[in-house]
Amino acid sequence: MKKQRLVSGIQPTGKMHLGNYLGAVSNWVQLQHTYDAYFLIVDLHALTTVYDNPAKLREDKLNLAIDLLAAGIDPEACCLYYQSDVPEHSELHLILSMLTPLPWLERVPSYKSKLQDLQEKDLNTYGFLGYPVLQAADIMLFNAQHVPVGEDQLPHLELAREIARRFNHLYKTDFFCEPQAQLTHFPVLPGLDGRKMSKSYGNTIPISASEEAVTKSVMSMLTDPNRKRRYDPGNPDICPVFAYHKIYNTKDRISVINQTCKTAELGCVDCKKELAATLNATLAEFRINRTRIANDIGEVQNILKKGAQKARNEAAKTLQNVRILIGL
Asked: Can you give the pLDDT at residue 115?
C-alpha cells in the first residue's frame, strides 16, 4: 500500500533544544517509518528574523542537520533537505502570494504576538507578514495529506487549507488536497526562567550541550518562588524543575519527588542535581551519535544534497501542473 505523504519543517535559528526535540523531532523519528515523509530545514523561513546575520544562519543550518541525524532522523526512511536548495518552494510561494488576501495574513494569531516578543528585531517586513504563505507552499508543493503540528500551529495549517481551497476554486480544479493536522500531544517544556522554552527568550537547554553545560543550566532554573528557605514546603505543581521530572523520570520516582518536595524533605538544590543527572543520562546516546556524525561533514552535506534532489523531482511535477493551471 502506498504511504500517504507528510511534510514538516524546523527553523535553523539557534541550537535545537529539548523543547524542539519533545515537540517535533521525537515525533518525526516515529512518523518517518509510517509516512512518505519530507522534513525541511526551513532556512528561508529563518530569514524572516536573521536576515542580517548570514554567518550565523550558515552555522545554525549545519548544526541543526547534525542534530536531526543524531536524534534519529534516517535519510533512508525520509527526505531531509535545506528548503533553499529546492527553489520550487520560492516559486510556489510567489504564485500563492498573488491570490492570498491580505486580511487572511493579518489575522494569524502569532503575527502580532511575535512582533511583541521580538521587539529588538525589525520585523515590519513583507516576508514576516507573508511567511504563512511560504508555509502553505511548503506543504502544497508535495500535496501532503498530513502535517504534524501542535495546537498553537493549527491556525497556520487552516490558512494553508484555505489557500488550497481558494486555488482550486479560482482555477476550477481539485488539484490540491486540503492537508490534515497530525496533532501532536506533548508536554509544554518550561524554559530556565519558567516561561515556555523558546530560542527567542534565550531560556533553552540545547540538546547538543555538554554535561557540564546541562548541569549549569539546570542549577540556574527557577523553582517554586514561595519556597524561600531550605525547609519551607514546596508546591511541585508550579515548579519548572518538577515539570521536567514528570517527563524524564519514572512514575515511582516522580511520586516520591512530589511528596518529599511538599514536606520539605527534598531541597531544591538536590532536586536540581537529580534532574541534571537524569537529563545527562538521557542525552548520552545522542552525544555519541552527534560526535560521530559531526566528524564526517561531507556525508552530512551529501545526505542533504540527495534529499534536495529527491524533493526537486517531486516538486517539479507540482509546479508543471500549477503553471499550466494559472496560464504561465
From this structure: 64
